[in-house]
Amino acid sequence: MAKPTRQSSGKPATIHDQKLVRGNGGELHQIAEGDSEILTTAQGGPVADDQNTLRIGQRGPSLIEDFHFREKIFHFDHERIPERVVHARGYGAHGFFETYESLAAYTRADIFQRAGEKTPAFVRFSTVAGSKGSFDLARDVRGFAVKFYTNEGNWDLVGNNIPVFFIQDAIKFPDVIHSVKPEPDRAFPQAQSAHDNFWDFISLTPESMHMVMWVMSDRAIPRSFRFMQGFGVHTFRLVNAKDESTFVKFIWKPKLGMQSVVWNEAVKINGADPDFHRRDLWNAIQSGDFPEWELNLQLFDQDFADSFDFDVLDPTKIIPEEILAPVPVGRLVLDRMPDNFFAETEQVAFMTQNVPPGVDFSNDPLLQGRNFSYLDTQLKRLGSPNFTHIPINAPKCPFHHFQQDGLMAMRNPVGRVNYQPNSFGEGPRESPQHGFRSFAEAEEGQKVRLRAESFADHYSQARQFFNSQTAPEQKHIAMALSFELSKVETTVIRERMVSHLLNIDEGLAETVADKLGMKQLPKPADAAVAPRDDLEPSPALSIIRNGPDSFAGRKVGVLVSPGADAALLKNLQAAIEKEGAVMEVIAPKVGGVEAADGSLIAAKHMIDGGPSVLFDAVALILSEEGAERLTGEAAARDFVADAFAHCKFIGFTSGAVPLLQKAGVDPEADEGMIGLDDPKAITGFIEGCRKLRLWSREMAVKL
Ligand code: HDD
How far apart are the C-alpha atoms of 315 and 365, rounded to whole Å? Predict the structure, then answer.
């Protein structure tokens, strides 16, 4: 776009030529070498003074004639567009999808035809309930929406990090969302499910029980977008060139393994760094450590669907991986942050209806409803049916149609013919061969408003999920339910929830009831279908069982004091970086500290600004004198006490012992406490870190 510059305008000298700018008071200041372009209005008119409105006299009234002022304020007043009604807080990145092998046997989708083919992609991660400015570590589902810019149009796989949903029918969506959002009279709580309305709705909606187990699990407090799985949730179809259909479920698996935080940590992260997940993705991509996921398909035919325990059209059910193995078919790499958050991440419009030829819908009633909602909402948010003219939403393949005009039309076709068929041989025509053909599924039946009987079992998979977790994960679920229900003020809602839990796991129900101070257990909720206890646990459902095998992509926070051992720090840093992890130094002052050898150790954070909740493991490289001094600082004591309470591995020099003791941490408490005086111990520290957390520490504490 043409921008007026001094060179191109050839205008006589301005204040820029004199290397002067005006200050707020109108006074002129000298500016450094390197001139900039001349500021203009949106109409291109050069601006002489951007600091003072036009007024009569120095202290007189402002003039409406000041078109520059009016334009500037007018535009500012209109900067915001409505935030998404759900998934308002999100963060996106660009990347590509690389196909491993041709899937032509299953689908004619162009993206899956050629091994090694790279397709550009844009991904937006999000929380569901909170508004745009809410914190990242809410206990919530995470959105995992992928836009593939394929050669045959955009394909949006609009998924979550949880493979099931709260409701079975899209007509219930406004209800579940209203219930979780801030209560409408008081407008709180923000980004929390811990309140009466949510649990009231849930406790009256047995179909949500499976999802509730997932949302109360550690899946809802991920450590990083990079360490989450993603799911298309619904059963979709793949359709090949012979118009044969195969059912499919889509699963994204993170290359770096799964990892979550603990709730007490999440609460503190939200205060210390509300942008924790954003910053993490930004830092990883900017430093060249590109996050990667593998796309896995669960492929099955009608016979499998007919013989499976549950209805494959029911979005509150999964197909366990142990029953139907996922097949990796490609990888997604995120390697570039948007240049402009608003233009790309805020304006990107995902729509489940965007499928390329070769991918098709199933009759899942949630999916069918979504296919209406997403298009509709984009008009509300982006203000015009021309939202596909916004670069992030435009296809990257050639496209030709007769849609025209409308607000903010940016692509305006030329020529006479804007319809077809026409006699002039102009314009695009449909192609039965290349175009999208819906799978010709035979349908018949009466028009009814009925929930299928095959959707009626609401507890069996909830129980299976709970039984598939490790002991610490089960404990986290019990703690999460107790916390959430403790915030519910209406007793009958708490009791109703416990009555559902009794159908899932008695021990869980008893623990929660006890934490809620209930004198006696209610009766189990009436179940339309008795919960089954013959479903095998699915180890694939546990995060802890599916963690990483290295510490790559993680972060160690090292607390140093004056007199610290600089050589040890250097060795530690080398070992951490060799592992593919990152080290950050925390010191009493952000300027750093003088090491024992007189060198300066630079610090990234002061202790208040770098609490241990921001790190996956910590090390204390302290001189004894330094540690003694830190015993008086609450932030330093919290650094240590929190790291221990959150089951992190702690490496420490013997000088650090006074601080450990003052923080109530026994230096010999368990194998997670690793002395670093001997440089060889660094290897042991890194090996410990690979386990991410020492859960036995937490299990020693009774609920
Ligand atoms: Fe939805 C946004 C995922 C059910 C209606 N949804 C939205 C986003 C994700 C999901 C990741 C954010 C996209 C972005 O980053 O811009 N939604 C899901 C999943 C669901 C689901 C995995 C169940 C399996 N959604 C669902 C239903 C409805 C909607 C049943 C309505 C009938 N969802 C919307 C919406 C949103 C949206 C109102 C808000 C902003 C947007 O679409 O673009 O249309």
Answer: 8
Taking alpha carbons only, the member of 296, 328, 369, 354 closest to residue 146 is: 354
Nearest CA to ligand 1 atom 23: 165
Residues 325 and 342 in one domain: yes
Q: Which residue's CA is the closest to the ligand 1 atom numbered 11?
A: 143
**What is the residue with the minimal CA distance to atom 7 of ligand 1?**
87
**Residue 85 domain-assigned (yes or no):** no
- Whether 475 lines ligand 1, by a CB cut-off of 6 Å, is no
Rounded to the nearest angstrom, the distance between the alpha carbon of 342 and the centre of ligand 1 is: 19
Quick check: is 87 catalytic?
yes
Task: Tell me, yes or no, whether 520 and 466 share the same domain.
Answer: yes
Instruction: Enter the tokens of residue 402.
Output: 């007769």
637 within domain boundaries: yes
CB neighbour list of residue 526: distance below 8 Å, 6 or more residues apart: none
Q: Which of 68, 94, 160, 503 is catalytic?
A: 160
Residue 109 domain flag: yes
pLDDT 10s digits, 220-256: 999 999 999 999 999 999 999 999 999 999 999 999 9
For residue 540, the domain's CATH number is: 1.20.1370.20
**Ligand 1 pocket member 158 (CB < 6 A):** yes
Q: Using alpha carbons, select from 648, 646, 641, 699 the residue that is nearest to residue 673.
A: 648
Active site residue 393: no
Catalytic pick from 68, 87, 234, 646?
87
Tell me: do 102 and 75 sit in the same domain: no
pLDDT by residue (tens digit) across 485-532?
999 999 999 999 999 999 999 999 999 999 999 999 999 999 999 999
Let me know if residue 34 belongs to a domain: yes
Task: Tell me: do 537 and 557 sit in the same domain.
Answer: no
Among the residues of 108-170, which ranges form H helices? none
